[in-house]
Amino acid sequence: MKKTLQPQPLMLPLPAVLVSAQYQQRRSIITLAWAGVVSSDPPRIGLGIRPDRFSYDLIAKSGEFALNIPDTSMIEVVNYCGIKSGRNVDKFSDLSLTPIQGEYISSPMIKEAPLNAECKLDHLIELPGSHHLFLGEVLLIHADSTVLNDQGRIDPQKADIISFGGGAYWKIGEKAGIRGL
Amino acid sequence: MKKTLQPQPLMLPLPAVLVSAQYQQRRSIITLAWAGVVSSDPPRIGLGIRPDRFSYDLIAKSGEFALNIPDTSMIEVVNYCGIKSGRNVDKFSDLSLTPIQGEYISSPMIKEAPLNAECKLDHLIELPGSHHLFLGEVLLIHADSTVLNDQGRIDPQKADIISFGGGAYWKIGEKAGIRGL
Fold first, then answer.
1. Is the whole model's pTM more than 0.90, yes or no?
2. Would A179 be classed as within a structural domain?
């Protein structure tokens, strides 16, 4: 017998990613858990962002953003960028994060995050409700070599990724199986 | 110094969820990793599905689906439902899964998954490229009491959730921090 729970945005695991963006002289970083992959070809990710967030306009006006996947040493950064607004502070300076330039976008990526993706906004869907949906095409990925396995593939354990759920952050655990029949 | 990798749909962690749907006399289950939350209010989730998948029409025509969050005892089900097509088989029967009825939708939920959500399709966005984007509002959640913590909140460790990445499935690990400054 199951218990019923009030409707809530159920998905597990949830990511906790850092999205950085710049428009003209202003840059910022926002932590998002409402984020996921939308399509394989083109490689496209989706981000749900509230219209009143400072980063909303930076992405909407510049037409680009960087996706940064943090590791568990960055929990403080993840918390700060999810809770504080960038309207009156520069989060890169505040948190002593190192901005690095990509090849295709002007928005700075976060050097301290082991994985970064340069993304071009290709759809902004103004949904009714709390969040609008930003879709972005992944143009190029930058990866610390330490997070790659012998086949050059990203290894979630080596990347020490953060899962978010139940108000807490979680480390990735042991391998539970391999994809394939 | 980072290595550049060819564009790929980067997001970590990725979920591995089972979506079940029924239209008229046909039902099926599809495993998806291109899935995430889109908005809080309404609670809305997004699913990327290839137009040639059997479940695509079941969801598009019925206007509803069930989201089922599996645990790591269900890796074989997750693999099967991600790889086999439901066009010629009934996956519930094939895998001896128990269909249960919800309150708001006709599509069967999977009893063996500890978490289920009844969802109503509210947008189908025919994106250019490999996958179309289905957005669904969560109407009600059904949870095994074993996956809830003392506050009645879903606990990712108790739910024994599956993360997907690098071609493998992963257990959830230890707590890395709490949300809040």
1. yes
2. no
